[in-house]
Amino acid sequence: MAPGSTPCIARAGSDLFDTNVEIHRDLVRNIPGIRRSQDLFDDLSDDPDDWAVAVAAESTARIDTPSAVVTRPFDYGTVITYTFDSAHWQATRFSDGRRYAVWYGSMDVATTVYETAFHWSRFVRESFAGHDRAIRTERRLFDVRCDAMLIDLRGKEKAYPGLVDRKSYAFSQQVGSHAHEQGQNGFLVRSARCDGVNAAIFRPERLADVRDKLFLTYRFNPARDQLVVERVQGRAWLKLAPSALE
Fold this sequence. Notes:
Mean pLDDT: 84
Radius of gyration: 19 Å
Shape: globular
Number of strands: 8
Distance between the termini: 29 Å
Low-confidence stretches: 1-6, 77-87
Order of helices and strands: HEHHEHEHEEEEE
Largest sheet: 8 strands, mixed
């Protein structure tokens, strides 16, 4: 089987899935979240009574969850009605977004930044094409304990570059589908965006003990292809080169 090919996963499994690793450690989860809390509906009305009505209406359709940071990715498929072109909303590297969900965390903060900045900057480019100003978003990071036996895909990208393809998920989604069908807990895998390591978890029961870690602010100028990350507002912590966002 030639490196770079897209083999049948069942045939590739003898060497692709031959290494396991048991981990008992924190993973870093990076999601949208604001530094200072505000009413979600204050941009729709100036009347606090209207806000209360909107909150009550929204809560009737919300799926209750004891730990949204862990379980929310697994809820998406139950609340989104897919149309011909909407499955891509939740498609990820190891899932097509239709049959099962995947929870992603990283070994370190910087890796979560490279991963999320790529996806967010793509959205900004599409939404604010040509705008020569910084578009801002805020992120909330958590430490989440993971206790699981995982398939170790680190280093496998040398023989199977599709695992970290920056343009296509075609091969990696086959890998995820096969592992999910086999009842696996998930993977450790090299990031496609930097030299870090990600975890892709299929089973929410392998995750627990969610704790706040820190907040970040991303500022991206789509016209100049510049993205700056701040840990303290107004003070650059990390600058991503344009190549990191491609």
